[in-house]
Amino acid sequence: MSIENELDQDAWTRWVAYRVSIKKPIKPASENAMKLKLSRYGNDQAEVVDQSIANQWQGLFDLKKTLAPGEKPKKTREQIAADDANWQWKIQQAEKTAHSIAADPIGELRMLDAVLARLTFQQDDPSYHDRLEQLKSKAAAKIGALQPKVVLGHPDLRGMVRQLWGERGVTRLAMRAENA
User: Fold this and answer.
1) 94 CB contacts (<8 Å, ≥6 apart)?
2) Does the predicted model carry a pTM greater than 0.70?
3) Going residue by residue through the chain (180 aa), what tens digit of pLDDT does each one get?
4) 67 and 73 in contact (C-beta within 8 Å)?
5) 3-state SS assignment for residue 65
6) For the chain, what are the domain ranges?
7) In angstroms, rounded to a whole number, what is the distance separating the alpha carbons of residues 85 and 100?
8) Which residue, 57, 58, 33, 61, is CA-closest to 45?
9) Where are the alpha helices (DSSP H) in 102-154?
């Protein structure tokens, strides 16, 4: 089947006229390639041309999905799986870095605090709550191994406790410090 049979002639005519109007006529050497490219868009050829003209583009590009105001793009299963793998990698890197800092529990907690800061910007992610629970579990183990006064003596760590468990968590830590 030839390109001409698959090419939307009306879309092609509008595209050529547009290119001439912006003083960027299609050169004979690239005309066949551009026809082939447009024909590959199948039933979307007219929309592709309309999009390029509306955006004052000199080329033909895949259709951009337009979202309603406030609507977020939906992730594919592959993207979600990649995000999960990336999250696991970040946790592993944080743990490795924490171990390389030294066996300093404060350093490890600071690394978990950095991971928490990143996680805070991913609250709309479907796996946010699972990741937060993983982080809480790791932080609780590290905090439990330290003297409460040590944790309370670091404002950034006190802030992490407040962010993970609220004011109640800081109060409980202070009570443990008093009883120690």
Assistant:
1) 111, 112, 114, 115
2) no
3) 466 678 999 999 999 999 999 999 999 999 999 999 999 999 999 999 999 999 999 999 988 877 778 777 777 888 889 989 998 998 888 777 766 665 677 888 888 888 899 888 888 888 899 999 999 999 999 898 889 998 899 898 999 999 999 999 999 999 999 987
4) yes
5) coil
6) 3-54, 77-179
7) 22
8) 61
9) 105-120, 128-144, 148-152
